[in-house]
């Protein structure tokens, strides 16, 4: 896994992989630091999906309403 520069346009983020820099808590889930997620839709809202858990197969589905700058404070773009 190698960190890369985020595409300039948020709409170009679809299909990119990111890794969480810190633990992120929502009303229904806790996403640990260093969780790898794939961006499946990007605009005002960014939709992210994790790989399935190796134990149980559950996937994290996460929606971020953060601005581009806020999002980049919480996630690094990576190349797998």
Summary tags:
mainly beta; 40% strand; two-stranded antiparallel sheet; 6-stranded antiparallel sheet; 1 helix; 80 residues; SH3 type barrels
Characterization of the model:
This protein has a single domain (2-79), classed as SH3 type barrels (Roll), CATH 2.30.30. It has one helix at 68-74, and strands spanning 2-4, 17-20, 24-25, 30-31, 36-42, 46-50, 61-64, 75-79. The mean pLDDT is 93. The longest helix has 7 residues, at 68-74. By secondary structure, it is mainly β. The radius of gyration is 12 Å and the shape is globular. 9% of the residues lie in helices and 40% in strands. The strands form two sheets. Strands 1-8-2-5-6-7 form a six-stranded antiparallel sheet. The protein has a two-stranded antiparallel sheet with strand order 3-4.
Poorly predicted tracts of residues: none
Strand order of the largest sheet: 1-8-2-5-6-7
- Class inferred from helices and paired strands: mainly beta
Arithmetic mean pLDDT? 93
Helix content: under 10%
Q: Strands, helices and their partners?
A:
Blueprint: E1 2-4, E2 17-20, E3 24-25, E4 30-31, E5 36-42, E6 46-50, E7 61-64, H1 68-74, E8 75-79
């Amino acid at each position: 896994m190698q960190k890369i520069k985020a595409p300039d346009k948020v709409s170009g983020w679809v299909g990119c992989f990111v890794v969480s820099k810190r633990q992120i808590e929502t009303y229904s889930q806790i996403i640990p630091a260093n969780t790898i997620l794939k961006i499946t839709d990007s605009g005002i809202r960014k939709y992210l999906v994790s790989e399935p858990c190796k134990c149980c197969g559950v996937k994290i589905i996460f929606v971020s309403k953060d601005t581009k700058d806020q999002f980049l404070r919480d996630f690094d773009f990576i190349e797998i």
